[in-house]
């Protein structure tokens, strides 16, 4: 097959020939055929003209490549460019410096993870947190924004989503959510993110200690990392610490309530003091009364003046019946006024 060969030294044309060579030969053989001698210790760039792209294309493996890659481009135009060693090294150094500068410049730009496709309101909360960080001019350097960044935002999203329906409950225990998180879009319009909690026909779960602890553990995994100590992150991270502190305060409250309930259930004596939980009523004596009150009437007949009696043992067990019984209670006794102490229903 035929080759149209041009040999340059930098930009100066040294030789140009049309040469016939077998496609099994190499570009090194082709160059020797044109020049009549081998070239050692000098960089050589090998290119051929690509009719498809109308451009000169570099041959990746240079002189050692086979000529058969030119079979579809006959006659094949080949260009050998002899490079000065010093010039090449200088250019490589310059390109290296420029490339390194670009890499360094790129790494100095803080980046944030991509926003999610808005499928659920949980995605909306995730995206709003990204916008919040963007407004605060925050981000991660290098490639960590996709791993560390997305992980931190997800952990924070999960916690805010979990406590979203319970802001009022937290406020009642002085567990205040930092203002920076209340500036998110849905809170600005007096709405919530987890609307399904109220509109869905499902069991409304309360805040659980274990779940809160898991969410805090996920967040604290990130905020103890070096990036969280950077100067530009400190104001935002301090708000995250405040949020975690208040959630821990609520966890402590839940634990105290739980411990108190365990203690109450383990007691042998009643939790309430019966003398502090009484209803005092004064009734006129009656000659005629409902027979169901006979036991109480007999008790009072045998009692001294203003003697106190606990009527729990005389009251029905079923709550509604017990309530009606007390309301209908009219007791006959030998006293004009009788004092009766009844336990709380």
From TrEMBL:
<protein>
    <submittedName>
        <fullName>Uncharacterized protein</fullName>
    </submittedName>
</protein>
